[in-house]
């Protein structure tokens, strides 16, 4: 099956973008026997490599976003089988961690929001359990004494997005997908149909179908008729990768999310001692500067949540740009230009949506239509 | 005069350490006609490359440290001629900035400490001017509204320690000093006299006199009789190099030091848009981890001082180890081992003390004795 390195004259599918969404689409397409090419080159700030990796539709639930959360819960429930299959095909770990999530509240207002969240979870059919402050501290002894109460979601887990990307790349290549390390200058369009892409190197890659999965860069790709790709605004996120001193017990043993005087903050622990502290949400255009204010807010709120983080090393500082469509929902499947698909606009949910998006895109590429559960997110809805 | 690159069999002086103190000693020795070799290799965390570069004996003054501050004021007063000569000999800038320092206070306790500081400055003969909160904000409009009062020291300035190191290295080389990029394993001692050093490469460098200026590493150098070099404890400092967005006016136009609820913090601006925010003082042994707690305190106190720093980019995070003798004063000149000198233990004052230390060490190397103004800091006082 491996045709890696073979100079194809044409592909069945060319996927533009080598983040999680591009890679999962390519892997699933290749599994279905499509000759697949991925074009991408580690960008300075790919959202996938910055993301914390929370798989938390229940604690992420917001009023007005119910359909998004249903899709998230569906994707979350596919994760165990997804990572099992991926680890098997790639031979690489994904650091999937089924340890649940604790959402906590600090003051009376935070507690009121927690109650609303609990009601929404019930309405969406997502299992959760309300806890007192004392019960929260029993689960996570390093929590601040000021914690007023919480919600435990036993089914909201986490994964390491960097490990996931590496495994997806290997799995896709093992299924025969070709990876080209370049950027796409333009989609090739002739006779009102997408027919491939032209790279920055000048090389052309012909394909029957083109999938754009290039995050915030997606609308910048040339050659496209106006209105086919909606605007995607970048939503800046700053986060810190902290590290436990060697030999110390973990500071938290599951994902802990807090609402600290209205301001959301989270800690995502990994087995190797890394603890991700995130994340800001800023509408600043293409600005990818790490700022004093962003880092200060994270450390301030993280310290309120778990005072002991002061002792942790700051191993890495990260800035990413989440791609958000005007309605904050993903753009999936066929566009109005025949042969052109989108898999973009995953905003804050790219890691969570990876399994469901991969399945939906493979379906769209082989049948021409999105499956029912993904139809709400059809790329054509905004054009 | 240039003998750079010439393979000497022996030197008059070998200086161990290529931080500011080692380089200034070598430059001054070479100026006096001594054949000088500097041995050093950019360590992971040289104190000189981390330091902010404040030349602020008046605002640094503390009870019980009067002799240190007199030495500091003497060294500060030599700075204008020192940088003029150095820039002339090296052809390189030092970013010396004669823009004064503003020391401010937040709450009633901070204000009481400021009054004490003012009295101490008067007693030491250091010029300063007491200001109201409003007068402080007139000098620095970005200061927090909560500022209660301040002291303006027109003669406390700043320099860029990295530029200073580069200029000193060039000037020393132009005066014929040889720079060997290696570390010293041991001092060569025979017949109760230091006679050179042996490098990690195995090479031996013979010299009539050896100067140890290796910061916190100084006591680790092998081959020395017990008690000749006192213990030097590392005092960890974390700081941030912030950067103004291009085209924005500077956030402060002089060094601003604050006492924020008892906690000291400072901002040192440079002409190129860099603003150094520092610094923690932690007794943690050789620990050079950047920590969540250290960065959080800097950003919290910096934000109290000048709220607008939130908008600045964090261009670099730094951790250094200041070398401190048991009595917190420098160790200069001849030791009890003939031929062996120290220029170490400059603690928080290495940049400030650079001109005076260079002069004192050149005197010790040529006459065998420290000048009067440096005699208090004789390396033999603790052995």
Automatic annotation (TrEMBL), chains A, B:
UniProt keyword annotations, A-Z: Oxidoreductase, Thiamine biosynthesis
EC number: 1.4.3.19
Provenance organism: Nocardiopsis gilva YIM 90087
FAD dependent oxidoreductase domain span: 12-363
GO molecular function, one term: flavin adenine dinucleotide binding
Catalytic activity: glycine + O2 + H2O = glyoxylate + H2O2 + NH4(+)
One Pfam family in the UniProt entry: DAO
Top EC group: oxidoreductase
UniProt-recorded name of the protein: glycine oxidase
Record carries keyword Oxidoreductase: yes
InterPro entries for this protein: FAD-dep_OxRdtase, FAD/NAD-bd_sf, Gly_oxidase_ThiO
Gene Ontology BP, a term: thiamine biosynthetic process
Gene3D superfamilies according to UniProt: D-Amino Acid Oxidase, subunit A, domain 2, FAD/NAD(P)-binding domain
PANTHER family per the UniProt record, alphabetical: GLYCINE OXIDASE, SARCOSINE DEHYDROGENASE-RELATED
GO terms for cellular component: cytoplasm
Keyword Oxidoreductase: yes
């Amino acid at each position: 099956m491996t045709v890696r390195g073979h100079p194809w004259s044409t592909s069945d599918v060319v996927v533009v973008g080598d983040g999680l969404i591009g890679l999962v689409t390519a892997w699933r397409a290749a599994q279905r026997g499509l000759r697949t090419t991925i074009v991408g080159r580690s960008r300075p700030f790919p959202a996938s490599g910055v993301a914390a990796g929370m798989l938390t539709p229940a604690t992420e639930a917001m009023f007005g976003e119910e359909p998004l959360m249903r899709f998230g819960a569906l994707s979350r429930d596919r994760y165990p089988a997804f990572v099992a299959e991926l680890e098997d095909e790639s031979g690489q770990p994904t650091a999937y961690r089924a340890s649940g999530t604790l959402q906590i509240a600090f003051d009376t207002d935070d507690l009121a929001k927690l109650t609303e969240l609990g009601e929404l979870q019930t309405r969406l059919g997502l299992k959760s359990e309300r806890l007192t402050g004392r019960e929260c501290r029993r689960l996570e002894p390093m929590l601040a004494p000021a914690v007023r109460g919480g919600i435990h979601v036993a089914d909201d887990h986490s994964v390491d997005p960097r490990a996931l990307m590496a495994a997806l790349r290997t799995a896709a290549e093992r299924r025969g997908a070709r990876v080209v390390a370049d950027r796409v200058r333009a989609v090739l369009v002739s006779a009102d149909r997408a027919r491939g892409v032209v790279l920055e190197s000048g090389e052309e890659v012909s394909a029957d179908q083109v999938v754009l999965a290039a995050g915030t860069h997606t609308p910048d790709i040339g050659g496209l008729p106006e209105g086919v790709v909606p605007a995607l605004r970048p939503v800046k996120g700053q986060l810190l990768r902290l590290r436990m001193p060697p030999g110390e017990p973990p500071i938290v043993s599951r994902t802990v999310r807090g609402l600290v005087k209205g301001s959301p903050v989270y800690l995502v622990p990994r087995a190797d001692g890394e603890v991700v502290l995130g994340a800001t949400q800023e509408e600043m255009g293409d600005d990818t500067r790490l700022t004093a204010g962003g880092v200060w807010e994270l450390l301030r709120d993280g310290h309120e949540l778990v005072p002991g983080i002061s002792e942790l090393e700051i191993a890495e500082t990260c800035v990413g740009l989440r791609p958000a469509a005007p309605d904050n929902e993903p753009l999936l499947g066929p566009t109005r230009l025949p042969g052109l698909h989108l898999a973009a606009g995953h905003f804050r949910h790219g890691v969570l949506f990876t399994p469901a998006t991969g399945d939906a895109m493979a379906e769209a590429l082989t049948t021409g239509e999105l499956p029912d559960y993904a139809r709400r997110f059809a790329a054509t809805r905004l054009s």
